[in-house]
Design a protein that fits this description.
The complex is a heterodimer of chains A (222) and B (213). By secondary structure, chain A is an all-alpha fold. Chain A contains nine helices and no strands. Helices cover 83% and strands 0% of the residues of chain A. In chain A, helix 6 crosses helix 9. The longest helix of chain B is centred in the C-terminal third of the chain and has 16 residues. Chain B has a six-stranded mixed β-sheet with strand order 5-6-7-3-8-9, with helices on both faces. In chain B, strands 2-1-4 form a three-stranded antiparallel β-sheet, with helices on one face. Chain B starts with 7 loop residues before the first strand and ends with a strand. Classes of the chains: A mainly alpha (222), B alpha/beta (213). Chain A: It is found in: Cell inner membrane.
């Protein structure tokens, strides 16, 4: 198996086995989203209007939940040393690890979202628009979170510091994601601009995150 | 693992390494060529591990340089792809089986010329446990799994940090045999240890309060 594919497969295996975080995120997502109707009450119009926002906040929190273990587990058992010392570009390894983490934790959220949208009485077009924004936007969350995970890798109990570091940068993704999804209900044409902005944010994160994360990891190794 | 390594040298010049703002290693010079072994000795905290980590490229030196010279090596400062680093921690994932653990490192680090996974596991006596999740291994067995990496992936220079930690007498002897075989093939070994490893013809590099004696 080619080296990077081997890393990707290993990450996925670890995520779905005991102690991995793949199902935790989606369970947490389920809990957060199902709690909202109880808090808001049985007003279906209000629920369906808030639907995209609820799905997005749930996705944001669920993504942040598993990110602290992205590099910490490898650091604890010494695997990170070997990955860094292997002589392969660390930036590339970061991209592969982030891609695997997104597959294991981000993709299940997107698959669960249509079912959860039923609980929130969301119309079909808004559900589809929310799905599109989640597909375009959650990679940005994982990429931004990787920077935080890299920065906190050498800290014990850095798990809580990570959301504090990452959330401010994730807020624009949230704003445009919800804006695009809610716009569909009123004016389908208004979907385009905020959606393109999410795509732009994801591309920006994809360009910056590997470099910043690799730099943070190299510094954190000492 | 039959053919021998092409000749190479690792040259360390005026190496300074800082750790936590304190200069731990100061002005170390040495050279090692294929077929040689160096045992780094010294009391606790003198910087044996720090030296090995700096050689592996894991901590950036505060001064000096580490260069790997051999035919066909374009960038001598790129030491990482020629070495094996065996640190305190074994890089064994408890959730993966013994076989998966080793197979991953072989795929990731490159299998060219290394022994197949089964043979490597056999050389450290773990072949019967290949299908067992590594979580069930004892400390010594985890260490042996880490040692199997040295056999499964072919690299000319081994950097071993307390390689015999947690190993029993029999496994220690088999590790020394592996090291001797590696030297015979023209490989080199730098091992940090405070125990005497019975390796014939090894030079000793004794660190004393951050300097070479």
């Amino acid at each position: 198996m080619p080296p990077l594919a081997a890393l990707y497969v290993r990450e996925l295996r670890l995520a779905v086995r005991i102690g991995g975080g793949a199902m935790m995120g989606v369970l947490f997502y389920l809990i957060v989203v199902t709690t909202f109707p109880f808090a808001i009450g049985p007003d279906l119009n209000l629920l369906s209007r808030l639907g995209p926002a609820i799905l997005w906040i749930g996705a944001l929190l669920a993504t942040l939940l598993g990110l602290d273990r992205l590099f910490e587990a490898d650091r604890d058992d010494g695997a990170l040393d070997l990955l860094v010392a292997s002589g392969r570009p660390l930036e590339l390894l970061v991209i592969v690890k982030v891609a695997a983490h997104w597959t294991a934790t981000g993709l299940p959220l997107i698959i669960a979202a249509p079912f959860l949208s039923l609980l929130l009485a969301m119309p079909v077009d808004v559900t589809l628009a929310t799905l599109a924004t989640l597909v375009a936007g959650t990679p940005a969350l994982t990429l931004l979170g990787a920077i935080g995970a890299g920065l906190t890798v050498s800290l014990r109990r850095g798990g809580l510091l990570l959301p504090i570091l990452v959330l401010p940068f994730a807020v624009p993704v949230l704003i445009f994601g919800v804006a695009a999804a809610t716009a569909v209900a009123f004016d389908p044409a208004a979907f385009r601009t905020p959606f393109l902005l999410i795509v732009a944010l994801t591309l920006m994160a994809a360009a910056i995150s590997p470099i910043a994360t690799a730099a943070a990891l190299r510094n954190g190794l000492d | 693992m039959n053919q021998s390594f092409p000749p190479f040298r690792l040259i360390v010049q005026a190496l300074d390494v800082e750790r936590g703002g304190r200069r731990v290693i100061e002005g170390i010079d040495f050279e090692i060529a294929g077929g040689e072994a160096v045992l780094v000795t010294g009391p606790n905290g003198v910087g044996k591990s720090t030296l090995l980590r700096a050689l592996a490229g894991l901590s950036r030196p505060a001064g000096g340089c580490v260069r790997f010279l051999a035919d066909g090596v374009a960038d001598p400062d790129e030491v990482g792809r020629h070495i094996h680093y065996l640190g305190h921690r074994d890089a064994v994932k408890p959730a993966l089986t013994v076989h998966e653990n080793l197979a991953f490192w072989q795929d990731f680090l490159g299998a060219d010329g290394g022994e197949p996974v089964e043979t490597a596991l056999e050389s450290v006596g773990l072949v019967d446990l290949a299908a067992l999740p590594a979580a069930y291994l004892s400390a010594g067995q985890r260490r042996r799994l880490a040692v199997a990496r040295l056999v499964a992936v072919r690299r000319p220079l081994w950097l071993l940090d307390e390689p015999t930690a947690a190993l029993d007498a029999a496994s220690e002897a088999s590790l020394v045999r592996l090291m001797a075989a590696h030297l015979e093939m023209g490989g080199a070994v730098i091992a940090a240890t405070h125990l005497a490893i019975g390796l014939a013809g090894a030079r000793s590099l004794r660190l004393v309060a951050g300097e070479m004696a």
